[in-house]
Amino acid sequence: MSYTCFDVSIEDKIAHIKLNRPEKRNSMIREFWEELPRIVRDIDDNARARVIVISSTGPHFSSGLDLGLFSSDALGGGAEDPLRRRQAGLRFYENVKRMQETFSCLESCRLPVLAAIQGGCIGGGVDLITACDMRYATADAFITIHEINVGMTADVGTFPRIFKLIPEGIARELAYTGRRMPAEEARQVGLVNRVFPDQETMLREVMVIAREIASKPPLAVYGCKRMAIYSRDHSTAAALDYISIWNASMLQRDEILEAIRAGRENRPDEFAELPPARPILGGNG
Q1: Half-sphere exposure of 270 toward its Cβ, with a 13 Å CA cutoff?
Q2: What distance in Å separates the CA atoms of residue 215 and residue 212, rounded to the nearest whole number?
Q3: CATH number at residue 62
């Protein structure tokens, strides 16, 4: 299937989603917000891969939201009818909620998502990468919560996530000033895991990490992702209770034994894949 904003390939159980509009600095046009969740859900729901890598093309990872959307009806603007103008606030709210889900689907999907960032990661690009499990960058990369520079407050996911990734004072500084944070500073504060000299090296090394993750038991990796998110958002006591309940129902003795045997015999694993996600109604179990 072809997309306006993305190229998608799956190899070695790794799904590679690549932003493909370098001539437009990979700005997030209307199609972007529709295509990304469709792609991620297809990969996840149909168990097409074990890991997702998101990368980009051209000089910038993404220049963020295409500002042309603000002059359109998509975000509540462009209504000449007085009655439609009264609806503008609610229409804006509903559209932003849908845009938020574009990135929340990265967090809620069952697979680990790795972001490989080159050049500028601007505005909506920060919303995207903070919803990923891990972030890697080239030496020339930078991030900027750019919304303040165009009279906005970031509203698609940066605030609830970046404050849980880096110290609050630094996050506030980025949000209030809109300054560029270079890749090395982002690494030092823990926003990115590693910095590489160029994009070719970064993609090669990120794929090494993705293959390592893909070699692990998918059911256990999914459990790790669920526990990481739950622990981040809840107290220690609640998280301990939740992981006990999770393992009481999800722990698979056969997977543990297979991991031990495969290691001893120095052979490829035979782990169970994640099952396809099925609708609540209409299936036969």
Answers
A1: 7
A2: 5
A3: 3.90.226.10
Helix (H, G, I), strand (E, B) or coil at 195: strand
Q: Which pLDDT score, from 0 to 100, does residue 86 have?
A: 80
d(CA 192, CA 126): 12
183 in Cβ contact with 137 (< 8 Å): yes
210 and 223 housed in the same domain: no
3-state secondary structure 132-183: CCEEEEECCCEEECHHHHHCCCCCCCHHHHHCCCCCHHHHHHHHHHCCCEEH
Residue 1 forms part of a structural domain: no
Whether the per-residue pLDDT at 239 is higher than 80: the answer is yes
Residue range(s) defining the domain that contains residue 165: 6-214
Provide φ and ψ at 104, rounded to 5°: -60, -25
Among 50, 18, 13, 45, which residue's Cα sits nearest to residue 219?
A: 50
Among 115-119, 130-134, 145-149, 260-264, name the one with the lowest average pLDDT: 260-264
- Which of the four pLDDT bands, split at 50, 70 and 90, describes residue 147? very high
Please name which of 191, 18, 232 lies closest in space to residue 107, comparing C-alpha atoms.
Answer: 232
Tokens for 272, please give them: 């169970």
Tell me the average pLDDT across 72-79.
Answer: 56
Residue that finishes a domain, picked among 164, 190, 214: 214
Number of independent structural domains in the chain: 2
Q: Which residue has the tokens 């903070």?
A: 130
| Inside any domain, residue 141 | yes
